[in-house]
Protein backbone atom coordinates (compact mmCIF):
# COMPACT_ATOMS: atom_id res chain seq x y z
CA UNK A 1 0.00 0.00 0.00
CA UNK A 2 1.27 3.41 -0.96
CA UNK A 3 0.02 6.85 -0.03
CA UNK A 4 2.51 8.88 -2.06
CA UNK A 5 0.96 11.27 -4.56
CA UNK A 6 2.31 10.76 -8.08
CA UNK A 7 0.12 12.74 -10.48
CA UNK A 8 1.29 10.91 -13.63
CA UNK A 9 0.56 7.44 -12.28
CA UNK A 10 -2.70 8.62 -10.78
CA UNK A 11 -3.97 10.12 -14.03
CA UNK A 12 -3.07 6.98 -16.00
CA UNK A 13 -5.00 4.83 -13.56
CA UNK A 14 -8.16 6.90 -13.72
CA UNK A 15 -8.07 7.24 -17.50
CA UNK A 16 -8.44 3.49 -17.89
CA UNK A 17 -11.90 2.66 -19.10
CA UNK A 18 -13.89 0.37 -16.85
CA UNK A 19 -15.87 -2.10 -18.94
CA UNK A 20 -19.37 -3.05 -17.87
CA UNK A 21 -18.20 -6.49 -16.78
CA UNK A 22 -14.90 -5.42 -15.22
CA UNK A 23 -16.23 -5.98 -11.70
CA UNK A 24 -14.74 -2.65 -10.64
CA UNK A 25 -16.80 0.33 -9.55
CA UNK A 26 -16.29 3.78 -8.08
CA UNK A 27 -18.10 5.01 -4.99
CA UNK A 28 -18.38 8.69 -4.09
CA UNK A 29 -19.39 10.41 -0.88
CA UNK A 30 -18.23 10.14 2.71
CA UNK A 31 -20.92 7.86 4.18
CA UNK A 32 -21.08 5.59 1.13
CA UNK A 33 -17.30 5.14 1.01
CA UNK A 34 -16.94 4.49 4.74
CA UNK A 35 -19.69 1.85 4.57
CA UNK A 36 -18.00 0.21 1.56
CA UNK A 37 -14.61 0.22 3.32
CA UNK A 38 -16.18 -1.77 6.15
CA UNK A 39 -17.71 -4.35 3.81
CA UNK A 40 -15.53 -7.47 3.84
CA UNK A 41 -17.18 -8.69 0.62
CA UNK A 42 -15.39 -5.98 -1.36
CA UNK A 43 -11.78 -5.84 -2.55
CA UNK A 44 -10.57 -2.25 -2.40
CA UNK A 45 -8.18 -1.09 -5.11
CA UNK A 46 -7.65 2.61 -4.56
CA UNK A 47 -8.84 5.38 -2.26
CA UNK A 48 -8.49 8.98 -3.43
CA UNK A 49 -9.12 11.46 -0.66
CA UNK A 50 -8.70 15.20 -0.35
CA UNK A 51 -6.40 16.67 2.27
CA UNK A 52 -9.50 18.03 4.01
CA UNK A 53 -10.68 14.51 4.89
CA UNK A 54 -7.40 12.67 5.36
CA UNK A 55 -8.06 12.34 9.11
CA UNK A 56 -10.54 9.51 8.44
CA UNK A 57 -7.72 7.21 7.24
CA UNK A 58 -7.29 4.64 10.00
CA UNK A 59 -4.92 1.72 10.41
CA UNK A 60 -7.72 -0.63 9.37
CA UNK A 61 -8.30 1.32 6.15
CA UNK A 62 -4.58 1.27 5.38
CA UNK A 63 -4.58 -2.51 5.76
CA UNK A 64 -7.62 -3.03 3.51
CA UNK A 65 -6.88 -0.70 0.59
CA UNK A 66 -4.10 -1.44 -1.89
CA UNK A 67 -3.31 2.20 -2.59
CA UNK A 68 -4.28 5.43 -0.83
CA UNK A 69 -3.75 8.81 -2.45
CA UNK A 70 -4.11 11.98 -0.40
CA UNK A 71 -4.63 14.66 -3.02
CA UNK A 72 -4.54 18.44 -3.00
CA UNK A 73 -8.08 19.80 -3.17
CA UNK A 74 -7.34 21.30 -6.61
CA UNK A 75 -6.45 17.87 -8.01
CA UNK A 76 -9.66 16.36 -6.64
CA UNK A 77 -11.56 19.15 -8.38
CA UNK A 78 -9.75 18.54 -11.70
CA UNK A 79 -10.43 14.81 -11.61
CA UNK A 80 -13.97 14.74 -10.24
CA UNK A 81 -15.43 18.23 -10.34
CA UNK A 82 -16.83 20.10 -7.36
CA UNK A 83 -16.97 18.59 -3.89
CA UNK A 84 -20.78 18.49 -4.09
CA UNK A 85 -20.34 15.42 -6.29
CA UNK A 86 -17.77 13.41 -4.36
CA UNK A 87 -17.37 15.14 -0.96
CA UNK A 88 -13.61 14.85 -1.32
CA UNK A 89 -13.46 11.05 -1.28
CA UNK A 90 -13.60 8.41 -4.05
CA UNK A 91 -13.14 4.66 -3.63
CA UNK A 92 -12.31 2.28 -6.48
CA UNK A 93 -13.44 -1.15 -5.37
CA UNK A 94 -14.92 -4.44 -6.52
CA UNK A 95 -18.60 -4.57 -7.42
CA UNK A 96 -20.96 -6.41 -5.12
CA UNK A 97 -22.41 -9.70 -6.33
CA UNK A 98 -26.19 -9.47 -5.94
CA UNK A 99 -28.31 -12.54 -5.14
CA UNK A 100 -30.96 -13.72 -7.57
CA UNK A 101 -34.66 -13.75 -6.75
CA UNK A 102 -34.80 -17.42 -5.76
CA UNK A 103 -32.22 -16.81 -3.02
CA UNK A 104 -34.32 -13.94 -1.64
CA UNK A 105 -37.43 -16.12 -1.63
CA UNK A 106 -35.65 -19.07 -0.02
CA UNK A 107 -34.46 -16.83 2.81
CA UNK A 108 -38.01 -15.59 3.39
CA UNK A 109 -39.67 -19.01 3.74
CA UNK A 110 -39.62 -19.14 7.54
CA UNK A 111 -40.10 -15.41 8.12
CA UNK A 112 -43.49 -14.32 9.40
CA UNK A 113 -42.74 -10.61 9.03
CA UNK A 114 -41.03 -9.19 5.96
CA UNK A 115 -41.42 -6.37 3.48
CA UNK A 116 -39.76 -6.23 0.06
CA UNK A 117 -39.85 -3.28 -2.37
CA UNK A 118 -40.38 -3.71 -6.11
CA UNK A 119 -39.87 -0.78 -8.51
CA UNK A 120 -41.76 -0.74 -11.81
CA UNK A 121 -39.77 1.28 -14.39
CA UNK A 122 -38.21 3.62 -11.84
CA UNK A 123 -35.01 4.87 -13.45
CA UNK A 124 -33.84 7.93 -11.52
CA UNK A 125 -30.60 7.03 -9.64
CA UNK A 126 -31.24 9.49 -6.81
CA UNK A 127 -34.71 8.07 -6.18
CA UNK A 128 -33.43 4.50 -6.22
CA UNK A 129 -30.60 5.35 -3.84
CA UNK A 130 -32.96 7.22 -1.50
CA UNK A 131 -35.35 4.26 -1.50
CA UNK A 132 -32.50 1.93 -0.54
CA UNK A 133 -31.61 4.31 2.27
CA UNK A 134 -35.19 4.14 3.57
CA UNK A 135 -35.11 0.36 3.26
CA UNK A 136 -32.18 0.00 5.65
CA UNK A 137 -33.85 2.35 8.15
CA UNK A 138 -37.13 0.43 8.15
CA UNK A 139 -35.85 -3.14 8.01
CA UNK A 140 -36.38 -3.93 4.34
CA UNK A 141 -33.58 -6.07 2.93
CA UNK A 142 -34.29 -6.15 -0.82
CA UNK A 143 -35.28 -3.97 -3.78
CA UNK A 144 -36.49 -5.78 -6.91
CA UNK A 145 -36.22 -4.10 -10.34
CA UNK A 146 -36.57 -5.00 -14.01
CA UNK A 147 -33.43 -5.88 -15.96
CA UNK A 148 -34.58 -3.86 -18.97
CA UNK A 149 -36.08 -0.84 -17.23
CA UNK A 150 -33.79 -0.04 -14.31
CA UNK A 151 -30.19 1.19 -14.16
CA UNK A 152 -27.21 -0.80 -12.98
CA UNK A 153 -25.68 0.30 -9.70
CA UNK A 154 -23.93 3.62 -10.36
CA UNK A 155 -21.88 6.01 -8.20
CA UNK A 156 -24.98 8.24 -8.06
CA UNK A 157 -27.11 5.43 -6.64
CA UNK A 158 -24.41 4.49 -4.16
CA UNK A 159 -24.04 8.07 -2.97
CA UNK A 160 -27.80 8.62 -2.60
CA UNK A 161 -28.06 5.32 -0.71
CA UNK A 162 -25.56 6.69 1.84
CA UNK A 163 -24.16 3.27 2.74
CA UNK A 164 -27.38 1.25 2.37
CA UNK A 165 -26.03 -0.39 -0.79
CA UNK A 166 -23.74 -2.49 1.41
CA UNK A 167 -26.74 -4.10 3.13
CA UNK A 168 -29.80 -3.86 0.87
CA UNK A 169 -30.01 -6.28 -2.07
CA UNK A 170 -30.58 -4.81 -5.54
CA UNK A 171 -32.10 -7.69 -7.48
CA UNK A 172 -32.77 -7.58 -11.22
CA UNK A 173 -35.42 -9.85 -12.74
CA UNK A 174 -36.44 -10.46 -16.34
CA UNK A 175 -40.19 -10.14 -15.80
CA UNK A 176 -41.85 -8.30 -12.92
CA UNK A 177 -45.19 -10.09 -13.32
CA UNK A 178 -43.53 -13.50 -13.03
CA UNK A 179 -41.60 -12.28 -10.00
CA UNK A 180 -44.82 -11.09 -8.35
CA UNK A 181 -46.39 -14.53 -8.85
CA UNK A 182 -43.38 -16.13 -7.18
CA UNK A 183 -43.80 -13.85 -4.17
CA UNK A 184 -47.48 -14.82 -3.96
CA UNK A 185 -46.55 -18.50 -3.95
CA UNK A 186 -44.28 -17.72 -1.01
CA UNK A 187 -47.17 -16.26 1.03
CA UNK A 188 -46.54 -12.58 0.32
CA UNK A 189 -49.41 -10.17 -0.13
CA UNK A 190 -48.73 -7.83 -3.05
CA UNK A 191 -49.69 -4.19 -2.51
CA UNK A 192 -49.34 -1.63 -5.28
CA UNK A 193 -48.74 1.93 -4.12
CA UNK A 194 -50.17 4.50 -6.53
CA UNK A 195 -48.44 7.81 -5.81
CA UNK A 196 -50.36 9.65 -8.54
CA UNK A 197 -53.87 9.18 -7.18
CA UNK A 198 -54.84 9.90 -3.58
CA UNK A 199 -58.51 9.04 -4.17
CA UNK A 200 -57.87 5.30 -3.98
CA UNK A 201 -57.98 3.05 -0.92
CA UNK A 202 -55.90 4.90 1.66
CA UNK A 203 -56.31 2.39 4.47
CA UNK A 204 -52.66 1.69 5.23
CA UNK A 205 -53.19 -1.71 6.81
CA UNK A 206 -50.09 -3.27 5.25
CA UNK A 207 -49.85 -7.02 6.01
CA UNK A 208 -46.98 -8.69 7.86
CA UNK A 209 -45.52 -10.29 4.75
CA UNK A 210 -45.77 -7.82 1.91
CA UNK A 211 -44.30 -7.06 -1.50
CA UNK A 212 -44.69 -3.30 -1.93
CA UNK A 213 -44.77 -2.30 -5.61
CA UNK A 214 -44.20 1.29 -6.76
CA UNK A 215 -44.28 2.78 -10.24
CA UNK A 216 -42.38 5.67 -11.76
CA UNK A 217 -43.43 9.23 -11.01
CA UNK A 218 -45.94 10.48 -13.57
CA UNK A 219 -46.46 7.09 -15.21
CA UNK A 220 -47.32 5.17 -12.07
CA UNK A 221 -47.77 1.42 -12.11
CA UNK A 222 -48.24 -0.23 -15.49
CA UNK A 223 -51.59 -1.95 -16.14
CA UNK A 224 -50.00 -5.41 -16.24
CA UNK A 225 -48.28 -4.78 -12.91
CA UNK A 226 -51.46 -3.44 -11.31
CA UNK A 227 -53.34 -6.50 -12.47
CA UNK A 228 -50.98 -8.75 -10.49
CA UNK A 229 -51.40 -6.78 -7.24
CA UNK A 230 -53.76 -8.00 -4.53
CA UNK A 231 -54.60 -4.43 -3.63
CA UNK A 232 -53.85 -0.89 -4.83
CA UNK A 233 -53.45 1.72 -2.11
CA UNK A 234 -52.55 5.40 -1.97
CA UNK A 235 -51.26 7.81 0.65
CA UNK A 236 -53.87 10.26 1.96
CA UNK A 237 -52.88 13.89 1.48
CA UNK A 238 -54.21 17.29 2.46
CA UNK A 239 -57.31 17.95 0.29
CA UNK A 240 -57.30 21.69 1.03
CA UNK A 241 -54.06 22.73 -0.65
CA UNK A 242 -53.94 26.31 -1.93
CA UNK A 243 -52.15 25.08 -5.06
CA UNK A 244 -52.12 21.68 -6.72
CA UNK A 245 -49.34 19.16 -6.06
CA UNK A 246 -49.86 16.08 -8.19
CA UNK A 247 -48.15 13.51 -5.98
CA UNK A 248 -45.45 12.69 -3.51
CA UNK A 249 -41.92 12.03 -4.68
CA UNK A 250 -41.59 8.26 -5.08
CA UNK A 251 -38.81 7.93 -2.51
CA UNK A 252 -40.88 9.89 0.04
CA UNK A 253 -43.93 7.74 -0.66
CA UNK A 254 -41.89 4.58 -0.25
CA UNK A 255 -40.50 5.85 3.06
CA UNK A 256 -44.00 6.46 4.42
CA UNK A 257 -45.20 2.99 3.43
CA UNK A 258 -42.11 1.28 4.87
CA UNK A 259 -42.46 3.28 8.08
CA UNK A 260 -46.08 2.17 8.47
CA UNK A 261 -45.02 -1.47 8.16
CA UNK A 262 -42.08 -0.98 10.52
CA UNK A 263 -44.19 0.84 13.13
CA UNK A 264 -46.79 -1.90 13.17
CA UNK A 265 -44.61 -5.01 13.21
CA UNK A 266 -41.21 -4.02 14.60
From TrEMBL:
Organism of derivation: marine metagenome
Name of protein: RNA 2-O ribose methyltransferase substrate binding domain-containing protein
GO CC annotations on file: cytosol
Record-annotated membrane-spanning stretches: none
Signal peptide: none
Domain (tRNA/rRNA methyltransferase SpoU type) ranges: 115-259
Gene Ontology biological process terms, A to Z: methylation; RNA processing
Record flagged with keyword Transferase: yes
Keywords linked to the UniProt accession: Methyltransferase, Transferase
RNA 2-O ribose methyltransferase substrate binding domain span: 27-95
Pfam families, per database record: SpoU_methylase (PF00588), SpoU_sub_bind (PF08032)
Amino acid sequence: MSSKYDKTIFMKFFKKKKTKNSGITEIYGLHSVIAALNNTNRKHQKLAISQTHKSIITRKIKQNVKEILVLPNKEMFKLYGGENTHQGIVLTTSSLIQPDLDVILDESINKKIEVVVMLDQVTDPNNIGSIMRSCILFNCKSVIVSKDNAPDITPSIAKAASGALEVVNYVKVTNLSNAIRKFKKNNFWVYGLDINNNNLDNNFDIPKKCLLVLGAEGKGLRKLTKKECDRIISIPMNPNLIFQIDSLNISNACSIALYEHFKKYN
